[in-house]
Design brief:
The structure is a homotetramer. By secondary structure, chain A is α/β, with parallel strands linked by helices. The first copy, chain A, folds into 2 domains: 157 residues, 3-Layer(aba) Sandwich (Rossmann fold), CATH 3.40.50.720; 169 residues, Dihydrodipicolinate Reductase, domain 2. In chain A, helix 1 packs across helix 12 and helix 6 runs parallel beside helix 9. The first copy, chain A, starts with a strand and ends in a 10-residue tail after the last helix. In chain A, the strands form 2 sheets. A 7-stranded mixed β-sheet of chain A has the order 8-9-7-10-13-12-11. In chain A, strands 2-1-3-4-6-5 form a 6-stranded parallel β-sheet, with helices on both faces. Chain A has 12 helices and 13 strands. The radius of gyration of chain A is 20 Å and the shape is globular. In chain A, helix 1 links the parallel strand 1 and strand 2.
Chain lengths: 342, 342, 342, 342
């Protein structure tokens, strides 16, 4: 049994971890913390989680009973807490953005924070299991990817060597439900009357997931920003609770056949537990990944074969956050990658 | 007083015409038809329209009491009816797509219909008042623009001569509420459980508004598809009743300054009654144009000044359909363009 | 021209007043205040209100240029401001609950506030124009009714003398959109993820509109709480932006015929500009009153004729707040009751 | 292993059965039918159900490989099919309303159908496991309860002997998401634009679940309609996908203490796997039962103690349909009642 703790267990991601972990056969929950609800019973705060008899502890609680801790707290709080936890010999899966970017200047620019633990950046494994299985398995610290970054990277990276041929920067037009966008933007953006029957772009050319997508795209593929330009990423706020749909525009100087594109995605999906490539002619909508840890991908081209639209769908609270974190925990603990996630 | 008729007055666009015309000071309604509700009183079918004492007549009713007729019926039905109405000396504003495209082969491909009145295509004025005021004023037949096309064209065309410099095709990633998308796609797409808490792309590289955008973009600007490629247009279905937000990606080989872009849009907006250009740093959401005949436009660039994102917002049932149709009627009848629309 | 001011013009009710007043032919806006947005231009804060060139002033601004002032601020703030305004000779329409209840003990209990201006309670006219036209016309101070109270009272009071026969307390099961419920309850209730895809009862047996309904029901009809009991009122929170639907259960010891019930409502509706009684067999939904100042009413009985369900629909921001306030302003100023509201 | 079939596996209830059964450890799926999708693979029609390799067969397929069959088809179709299935020795759980009512005249009146298998009515067990465990365990035919009926009965019946004291008919004001209401009402009621941002009462004094509630209330408690009147039931349509919230009004001639009411519900909940009684002061909303087989119940009284409001929440597709059906299957097959449902 893995003895785990969740710091920030009453936020959206924390609550989602509780939902999935309640049936996980190899997990023993030792610590749940919440600054807002400390002292109250989990099932009183979340009546739907009747299985939990635990009480929320303060965020600063002793973690020594835990082998592994999930951090579902703001960037700044993670930045401060992670070094302390590692020092105590606890392994960490950090759901914040604190340890995803390798460049502290880029971090400062997009997060408006000074990075106070740069010595850990090299060590931190990027928790995208489809590409970093070994690193994650052996990591003390896993930086769980951003929800938008997961949807973008898994829609582009499977093309592998074909990405060397792109002559223009990929354009990622992404649309997120409120639970995916809300935590990272100010006040009014999560108010019902502001969001319902509405739709908007936000943080255009300024969202912190753009450098995350770009860093791992260049690290994991032959795509070069110098030659083809910075990745263009536009997030939008959808009036739904959960889900991210990304519409990705790729342009090739020469036609790429349907067979070439489909074989890359099909092969990739066949090797991965939580990646599904749609049948020809089908594109995923949000519904097909709701409440699941899967990402689903579809692809369409124009008649020239030069322009491709890739559409990816995932549930931002599952594959985009807590489900992926559990997938990473499974790998770190030598368990089946999909345990507790089907 | 203009004596008008509405053929198809009980559909979404027809009902919206009724809403706006009930307070129009220069309109006398002579005929309202509906195949579904013929024989029933308007205010019985739509209790919110208590002002209407008329009864819905059959679609084939005599229009001789009308000076001008709005057609809010399917493409095929418009195609058949328009020649007959013109023959009877009635002026027509057609809200369908039947007379928007100049090329009957393109029409056949995208509408899956043979064009049976090609002799009228030259004569038909494209009902985008911001660009065709004179043609509309004198027209017997106005082809009211598609909702997506209105949002795309008004976000690109104001840039005028700058469009000659585009070295890549504009990419229009558009998101529409159900009333804008529903009429033109099959069954399940308008079912509540299918749409609510969902989001999807549809008709990728296959939507009939793509050639409409492309035709008028090349007709009204120096943009050349031969040099820079076919316009890329991806429609999506939003879980809201009304509204279209278009995110438009433009790429210039050389940096364009903020001042250059803003001056083009500001000048254009200043000359137009229903175009509003947002303050610097602001982008429109759906809410700012809800229930109004306005299109609102915002623009953002990346640091290089080569990549621009233009966002436009409109209400698909007003500026995207019935409001624009009334704007056209006002022009055709020598009235103030905004009469009844403020 | 009536010279008016709006204190709290940037809240939901204030913004709705701005929407309706922009086309009102007899109103001149002298003062708009907002504590949150003071110093900013109206059209910058609300891009959809392009017609307004004014700047939001502080809430404490001088009102001496105004004949009449709308208060769209919290209960406590109204309680403090109203006596000062009246002293300055300005007439006041108060949209808060501060001056609706005649009994200061009941007020304290339901509003958790001590009433600091009890001397004005007798003078304040209850702004339900269907029943207090004369009082409103002559009032210095109008207490604009609560949204729930308007929907409940207009569904019961038209039955007039029949209400003497009720042998049980009316049960009002009311469902409100977020803009109607949000202002009066705490934090989380207006968060998108909490409200969307959800529904709940709140403040059961504890909502401040219960004593309001009860007071005016007994004042304006022969209904007696001593004989038949306290009115039962349960508010619920609907995942929609606007609208209140009230399902009202009435029980008579002897059968009442359909004709008797219908004649009472029909007669009442015929005399009122903004009350509509549905055709037999029809009940109103929220949509039929959206964005209008109307209340729509329907009635159904069981086979015995003893049990009646009355359903009323209104838009909480219009007939439930700002529209009704303008209706009251028209009466106070000797204008047509419906001016600017059609 | 129980070998099961689902007739009508692609409707809302059928699809929900597939969702829950995919992880059920004691079920082997032998037959899935769908008239609409026959010949197509399950995972092609529902990409989210990637686990299913089966193909939808025609509704008339041979069921001889099945021990037990779920019917998720319309009332008329169930009425015809059930006798044939029983004759073949297959046990049946019927999710339609065909075998719930004991009185064929009442059935005809509310379902507009003649009952063609009245000989089976006595034998059919009513599939409310909280009250009919033994009958269900031994049944050949289980009539799975209506979603509204489940929510109403589980909110009233736990009061047991106290129900003898009710001097007025219970009033059940119920609000259902579209998946609960849609299947049983006509066309427009499930169209997105008709439902979204809307709310309505429907089938007032005419819904087929009223006699179902009344029959089992009188059968399972001392409540008497002769003395206290027919149960009053008003269904409403909520703009959400799933969930039913019922607000139940009970009146006692003498005060009932909070302790009395709470002890009845607490005791009942303690004995049942899927019934949860809220803490004092709490009422359930829809969210707490979403995607679960639980019903959650809360209770509040006025100061007199004579008027009580009971609120129940359930997911109409789970406890209101397919989850309850699986609970019944478990009982029929001697398995743990909650197998596959946690």
């Amino acid at each position: 049994m893995v003895r785990i703790g969740i710091i920030g267990a009453a936020g959206l991601s924390g609550r989602e971890l509780l939902h999935w972990l309640k049936n996980h056969p190899q997990v023993k929950i030792e610590l749940l913390t919440s600054s807002k609800y400390q002292g109250r019973q989990v099932s009183e705060v979340f009546p739907e989680l009747t299985a939990y008899s635990q009480v929320f502890e303060p965020n600063e609680s002793d973690v020594s009973a835990c082998d592994l801790v999930f951090l579902a707290i703001p960037n700044q709080a993670s930045l401060e807490l992670v070094p302390k936890l590692l020092e105590q010999g606890v392994r960490v899966i950090d759901l914040s953005g604190a340890f995803r970017l390798g460049d502290t200047e880029v971090f400062s620019k997009f997060y408006q924070l000074t990075h106070t633990a740069p010595e850990l950046l090299d060590e931190a494994a990027f928790g995208l299991p489809e590409f970093y299985k070994d690193e994650i398995s052996n990591a003390r610290l896993v930086a769980n990817p951003g929800c938008y970054a997961t949807g973008a990277l898994l829609g582009i990276l499977p093309l592998g060597d074909l990405l060397a041929e792109l002559d223009r920067a990929p354009i990622i037009d992404a649309k997120s439900g409120v639970s995916g966008a809300g935590g990272r933007v100010e006040g009014d953006m999560t108010n019902y009357v502001s969001v319902n029957e509405n739709f908007k772009a936000y943080k255009v050319f300024a969202h912190q997931h753009q450098p995350e997508i770009q860093q791992y795209l260049t690290e994991l593929s032959p795509y070069s920003t110098k030659e083809s330009g910075d990745v263009i990423f536009t997030p939008h706020l959808l009036p739904v609770n959960r889900g991210i749909l990304s519409t990705i525009y790729l342009h090739f100087p020469e036609a790429i056949t349907v067979a070439e594109i489909r074989s890359r995605f099909s092969k990739f999906a066949a090797e991965q537990k939580f990646v599904h490539f749609m049948d020809e002619g089908d594109l995923p909508d949000l519904k097909v990944t709701l409440n699941s840890n899967r990402v689903m991908i579809g692809a369409e081209s124009d008649e020239s074969g030069q322009n491709w639209v890739i559409v990816t769908s995932l549930d931002n609270l599952v594959k985009g956050a807590s489900g992926q974190a559990i997938q990473n925990m499974n790998l770190m603990c030598g368990l089946d990658e999909s345990l507790g996630l089907l």
